[in-house]
Amino acid sequence: MAQSNNGFFDNFGGKYVAEVLRRPLDELEVAFKEAMADPEFVKELETIQRDYIGRETPLLYAETASKILGGAQIYIKLEGLANTGAHKINNAIGQCLLAKRMGKKRIIAETGAGQHGVATAAACAKLGLDCTVYMGEVDVRRQQPNVAAMEMYGAKVHAVTSGSRTLKDAVNEAMRDWAANPDTTHYVLGSALGPSPFPDMVREFQSVIGKEVKRQVAERGLDVEALIACCGGGSNSIGFFAPFVDEANPRLIAVEAGGIGPGVGENASRMTGNASREGIMQGYKSRFLLDEDGQALPTRSISAGLDYCGIGPQLAALGAKGRVEFSSALDKEALDAVKFFAKNEGVLFAMESAHAGAEAIKLAPKLPKNKAIVVNMSGRGDKDIFITCPVFRPEEWKEFLISELKRLEDNKDIHNADLMKDH
Ligand SMILES: *Cc1c(COP(=O)(O)O)cnc(C)c1O
Hints:
- The chain is of the alpha/beta class.
- It has 15 helices and 14 strands.
- Residues 86, 88, 115, 191, 230-237, 305-306, 350, 352-353, 378-379 line the site of pyridoxal-5'-phosphate.
C-alpha cells in the first residue's frame, strides 16, 4: 500500500476540510499526478535534486560504532548533508516546482520550530517564488535564528497571534490564507500529513531517500535486517520506508519522542503513548495525543521536529497492520546518541535523528555481525547548539552568551550600524 486508496490508507487519512478547500485540493491532486507522469517534470526534479540539494546523499558505514556495539553493521544515510541541512528540502523543492508548473506565483507554508519554513524559503528563493511563512508568535520569539534565515532567503514571516500562538495555529492560518487565495497561491505543507493529497505527495517527494538507499544497499550486497527513522509528522520515515513497505523485509522501525517519560504531556508518542487515540484534526484521520474530549494534548520533546500531537495517516495504518514497528527514545537517550556518533563516527546528528540513532544503539548488539541496519540521519545537528551546548557545557555556554550580549551592546552604535547602512 505505497499509494492511498482515494486518499485513504485503510481507515486513516481522507480529506476532512471545509468546502472552500475541496477545489484547491482536488486541483492539486490532478496536477501532481500529471506532473509525476510527465518525463520533463521528473527530469527537472532530478536535476535540481542533484545540483541544488546535492543528491544522492551518502550511505556511510559506521565502522567504529558497529565494532563498539559488537553486533549488526550500522549504516547511516547522511540526509543531513542535503542543502539546508535536513530532508525537509526534498519536499519543499518538489512542491515548489509543482506550484510553478501550476502557474502559482505565491507560496505559503506553516512552520513550528522553523525547519520547514527555512526549507520552503530556500526553495522559493531558488525557484523565484514569493514566500510567506506562518509561524506562531511564541515560536517566532524562541526560534530567532530560523526566522533570520527565512528572512535572508527573502521570505516574509507572519507571526500568528491566535490560539496558543504555536504550530497548530500557524497551520490554521495557512489554511485560511489558501482558502482565500487558491488561484494564485500554493500551500506547501511540511510533513506527510494533512488532507489528501498531501500524505501521498509528501511521501513521493521524500521517497528519493528510500530509493537511493535501496540502490546503495544492493550495490554493496548488504543483508539488511532493519531500517530505522525518527518520526514526527512522518515525512522522513515514510520516504525512507516507501520502496520497502510492500515487501516482507526489512523490518521498518519508526522512533517517536519519548520525552522525559511515559506520563501524559511528557512525550510525543502518538502510537505507543498512554494518550494515543484515533481522531480527526486539521483535515485528516489518524492517531493523535488527545484528551477525553478529543482535544489535542500538550506534547514534550527535546527535539522540536518530533514535538507534535499527530502522525501521518499512512504510518498510522502501517502501524495498525504491523508492517511498521514503533518505539520511542527518551530525551536523554537521544542526547547520548548524539555524543556517541559524534565521537565515534565524526557525524553530528540532529536531535530528531538522534532518536533513530538511539534505537540503533539498542538494536545492533542483539543482531549477528553479518546483518546490517540502516539509520536515517534526517538532519545534521548544527542547528541544535542552543539545545546541546547548555546540556553538555552549561557553565561555559552561559558565560559565552553573557559575553556575546556584552559584545553586542558595546558595538551596537558603531559597528552594526555601519554594516547595516547599505541594507
Ligand atoms: C522536521 C524534522 C523531523 C521530523 O519530521 P518528519 O516529518 O517526521 O520527518 C525529523 N528530523 C529533522 C532533522 C527535522 O527537521
